Amino acid sequence: MSKTILVVDDSASIRQVVSMTLKGAGYSTIEASDGRDALAKLTGNRVHLVISDVNMPNMDGITLLKELKARPDTKFTPVIMLTTESEAAKKEQGRAAGAKAWVVKPFNPQQLMAAVGKLIMP
Amino acid sequence: MLTHHQAAGIDTVSFAGEMTIYDIENLATAFMPLIGQASNLVVDLKEVTEIDSSGAQLLMMARLERQRLDKAFSLVNHSVAVVNLFKLLGLLNWFDDPVLLSGDA
Amino acid sequence: MNMDAALQTFFTESRELLEDMESQLLQLEGIDEAQLQESLNAVFRAAHTIKGSAGIFNLDFIVAFTHVVESVLDRLRNQQIAIDEALVSLLLSCRDHIAALVDAAEAKEPPDVSAGEPLLAELQQYLAADAQPTSHAAATQVANTPPPFERMAADAVSNDCWHISVRFGLNSFRDGMDPLSFLTYLGTLGNLVSVTPLAEFIPALEQYDCESCYLGFAIQFASQASKQEIEDVFEFVKEDSELHIISPNSQLTEYIQLIESMPEIDQRLGEILLQCGALTAAELQRALSRQQQQQPTAPIGEILAHGDASLNPVLDAALTKQSKVRESLAKEQKSLRVDADKLDHLINLVGELVTAGAGTSLLADSLGDGNLCESVSILNGLLEEVRDAALKLRMVPIGATFSRFQRVVRDIAKELGKDIELQITGAETELDKSVVEKIGDPLMHLVRNAIDHGIESQATRLAQGKSERGEISLHAYHDSGNIVIEVGDDGKGLDPEVIRRKAIEKGLLDEQSNLSDEELFNIIFEPGFSTAAQVSNLSGRGVGMDVVKRNIADLRGRVEVLSQLGQGSTMRIILPLTLAIIDGFVIGVADEQYVLPLDTVLECLELNSAELDSTDEPYINLRGQVLPLIFLRDYLAVRGSKPRRQSIVVVQSGGQSAGIVVDRLYGEFQTVIKPLGKLFSRVGCVSGSTILGNGTVALILDIHGLLDAMIAYEQLQYRR
């Protein structure tokens, strides 16, 4: 059974790149365009890892992280936050909310897979 | 899931299904009281389909506690998932229970 | 290690490699670039491994020949020369020669080295094609280069490891950070030589929080990775965790620092470092005493200044050994070679056990003690599992036997100027090893027959609108307790008329006789029958098909022929799954007991004498179907009077059903088959004997033989 990763980003192209990279490595993916969409798509799906952008419309990554920590089925699910160098303030907020794993954009597929590999087994 | 039965002075606790952080609280709540009470404690891992470090740590704690109490404790029927985890974390040696390494697992 | 045993392993291993080599070589033509490279690598590795192992056993004649083959293969895989059909043929011949050399070595006979000389001459042409150095020369060069660090070379094994100590943060689990995945990821950067858990931080039961992480690990890690790369593995947990990474050949002080960082367990940590092989006992002693000498406040630099710190290689030889044992445990082989004799002995014992178990079961039944019966039934259930597991040990896939035919088909087709493809399906089907060993020859005959007689010449095929390339198929599958192996071809098929004329000509058939097509097909198994108008040197000498039938009968199997004129033929071999133990159904006639194979038994009925008396014909109406009856009492000519009530056992074999009328039913019984002596080999309807639980001997009835006899008898009646 391949592990499922929820990919949350408002940029369709980033979602696609991330999804393709993960699928190429044998993971299944679910894509969501923002935090609210992500929470909706979680229902009924067991997710092993969440990769989320920070800056998103409707519900941003940090709120999503807090929501995930509050749900029994996702409170222990590892989360990778995608961020840019310029978002220092956001990063501080994220840290406070319990975000541990950060990947800085722009990233290449190897960097992404390395981050995923440290958190879940294939 | 955890089942407990007692026969001939031996308490057998069987873990089944997932022993991961998502279930650990329920498992620990049922399991921890037995660690102190049972005189002979056998933990059957045959039906464990998935286990993570939190599951392994619970078993480690049980073993340490039983050693402190100087009471018998053994793990039996390690499932493939358990053996794989134990191998990786160096726990096969740490728990020195006999483990059958199945040939075609 | 026992040299003879090792040598035996070498022979077995070499044969496997050679077989692999053959199948790889055969598929070289017409595969794509990537696969080609992979196959060439596999062939090269095979030759390389054989050469290497042969060297250990001083089998210099194998080394000498294989070395040249390996050199050519090396150039092939480095694309210095190209693969073509001539080279494939040459390499196949070389493979055969290596096999012959291995055989000679095993038989302890002088090898026929001269047979390899023409091959070597041909190989040299490929090597001489240009002036690049061969792999051998290259290898020598490498060997002559001095190792870069002499000191390392002296104790290199023990010295290569990083030491990583990590204590994960309390919230690791809650953050979704499982130490397990970090260690797994670390494993992708190198080799986890040893992982020692640090359980010292796990609190007592009362303080234990099951969602907190108290784990730590001491890891010996062999890797080319940089310190930064290793540190990055723990990037996501580094804020909350304590991480120490000590590079290979580090100063003792680094370890002292590590020990100091975990004061609550410093003593124990020292032991762990010793245990996981990072420090020797002497070094640990030095480190601990030095640590005690220092005031806690003393700067690290001071320790450094004192240093006789040129730290030796830190691994103790004994500890290296220990971690090696652990390493090999991790790489636990997935299969195990067991001497076939030992296995047979086990099967025999299991057989005896099964018999004894059945006896105990009978005894328990007669005593009528409920507890005893229950316990015996549990015991017998387990026995059955043990039996099945033991028999499974002997099961091997037929694939290896099948793939040998690739070569046969290729060679013979070439010789006959035909273009034939072999299709293999069901290669993973498992059957008893003893059957696999004995099925090779009959299969060979059938395949040769199919190539020789079955597939037409290319011209004929084209004229008939068939594809130029003929197809032969080998197909294996399981079918209700049997293994079925089919040898099919899309050739001309059997012509019943030709067979008929031939049979009459050979005096095997009466001119008046009126046989069905199937009966005519079966004549090809008669001794002295051959359909080939032209006798070739491959088959068609009239020996073969009768031998095939006999060989298969020896395995308690049978052969069927399916053929469609112009479309092709299929020879279907039906074999029992195993030879040793079957589930039997025990019946009784007069005072004797007989065993029917349980998988042939459909149901049991009571014989209604009234219904039977109304007619002379031995059959009954079973739910609208005619069921012919065999009165076993009459058939076996048992004297004495019939009991008042008799039973019918409905059996089925090869699509035929019949009712066997018996006196008594005893039920299921695990039956260990003992073969009958040669004297009884002509008795058609008995396939063996067994010893029942109470010690009496019972014959095992061959249902197929019984039904055949019944049909033959009926036809005889009919003709009259």
TrEMBL record, chain A:
Keywords: Phosphoprotein
Domain Response regulatory as annotated: residue spans: 4-120
Modified residues (4-aspartylphosphate): 53
InterPro entries assigned: Bact_response_regulator, CheY-like_superfamily, Sig_transdc_resp-reg_receiver
SMART domains per UniProt: REC
CDD domains for the chain: REC_CheY4-like (cd17562)
Identification of the protein by name: Response regulator
Source species of the chain: Shewanella electrica
Organism lineage string: Bacteria, Pseudomonadati, Pseudomonadota, Gammaproteobacteria, Alteromonadales
Automatic annotation (TrEMBL), chain B:
Source taxon at top rank: Bacteria
Transmembrane segments annotated in the record for this chain: 72-95
Keywords of this entry: Membrane, Transmembrane, Transmembrane helix
Residue intervals of the STAS domain: 1-105
InterPro entries per UniProt: MlaB-like_STAS (IPR058548), MlaB_ABC_Transporter (IPR052746), STAS_dom (IPR002645), STAS_dom_sf (IPR036513)
Gene3D superfamilies: STAS domain
Signal peptide as annotated in the record: none
Protein name in the entry: STAS domain-containing protein
UniProtKB/TrEMBL annotation, chain C:
Catalytic function, reaction form: ATP + protein L-histidine = ADP + protein N-phospho-L-histidine
E.C. no: 2.7.13.3
Recorded superkingdom: Bacteria
Phosphohistidine: residues carrying this PTM: 48
Annotated ranges, domain HPt: 1-105
CDD domains: CheA_reg, HATPase_CheA-like, HPT
Domain called Histidine kinase: residue spans: 379-579
Record SUPFAM superfamilies: ATPase domain of HSP90 chaperone/DNA topoisomerase II/histidine kinase, CheW-like, Histidine-containing phosphotransfer domain, HPT domain, Homodimeric domain of signal transducing histidine kinase
Enzyme class, spelled out: transferase
Limits of the CheW-like domain: 581-712
Keywords: ATP-binding, Chemotaxis, Kinase, Nucleotide-binding, Phosphoprotein, Transferase, Two-component regulatory system
Main function: Involved in the transmission of sensory signals from the chemoreceptors to the flagellar motors. CheA is autophosphorylated; it can transfer its phosphate group to either CheB or CheY.
Protein name from the UniProt record: Chemotaxis protein CheA
